[in-house]
Design goal:
Blueprint: H1 3-18, E1 29-30, E2 42-47, E3 51-54, E4 59-61, E5 63-73, E6 78-90, E7 98-100, E8 103-109, E9 113-117, E10 124-127, E11 133-139, E12 143-149, E13 155-157, E14 161-162, E15 164-167, E16 181-185, E17 193-204, E18 211-212
Antiparallel strand pairs: 1-18, 2-5, 2-17, 3-4, 3-17, 4-7, 5-6, 6-9, 7-8, 8-11, 9-10, 11-12, 12-16, 13-15, 14-18, 15-17, 16-17
């Protein structure tokens, strides 16, 4: 191959590689001026748009928010713990319940929640900390359904941007295929599994921006 042509091809390859979004192998959470956030810093999250639970009976919550604490920010991994009872889903139905074809549904998260980044990827694992996460759905005037499992697929974060977390239902047969959270307790009105779609932004509890780089 002609040397000039070879050099041109190499330049094109380098330019194309630069267009691929980088995945941080060592994410770190910082304040807006680049100072690493201390372990123990208070954090809060607020949804942007609806939180949608998908199954045989879908339901929508217009808002969700949580409060918690940063438990690790090592430069290779970010971890957080959300206080039990401090992850709250609300909607536009009576008593601020979420809406569904069965009527209003109240959502209660029964465990603490922990999240952590997966090294070398932009993925997150969300668990019930030392146990699987559980949540209950109270279908008003009908029944209560309890679900138990962890979010291990379809949860991602952004680097070199404001701290955001995306939990995406995904598509079957793809890398983002969801792992539904199965029913643990409940009667015939309860769907057998649920997957979740939501996007939320992380800040400090005083509203200050958190960046992930």
């Amino acid at each position: 191959m002609d040397k000039k042509l070879l050099m041109a091809c190499m330049a094109i390859a380098v330019f194309a590689a630069s267009l691929v979004p980088a995945v941080s192998a060592s994410p770190v959470a910082t304040d807006p001026v680049g100072t690493s956030l201390a372990v123990g810093s208070s954090i809060t999250g607020l949804t942007s748009g609806n939180a949608t639970f998908t199954s045989s009976v879908n339901f929508i919550c217009s808002d969700a928010h949580f409060t918690g604490t940063l438990t690790a920010n090592t430069g290779t991994q970010i971890k957080g713990e959300l206080v039990q009872g401090a992850t709250i889903f609300t909607g536009t139905a009576d008593k601020e319940d979420c809406t569904s074809s069965l009527g209003s549904i109240g959502v209660t998260v029964n465990t603490k929640l922990c999240f952590e980044t997966v090294k070398g990827t932009d993925n997150l694992i969300i668990t019930g900390c030392t146990q699987e996460m559980t949540f209950s759905l109270n279908v008003t005037g009908a029944t209560t359904c309890k679900y138990k499992g962890n979010v291990t697929t379809g949860a991602t974060f952004k680097t070199n941007a404001d701290a955001t977390i995306n939990i995406v239902n995904g598509q079957k047969g793809t890398a983002s295929e969801p792992k539904p959270i199965p029913l643990e307790e409940g009667g015939f009105l309860c769907s057998s599994t649920y997957t979740l779609d939501m996007h939320f932004n992380l800040t400090t509890t005083d509203g200050s921006t958190i960046l992930v780089s």
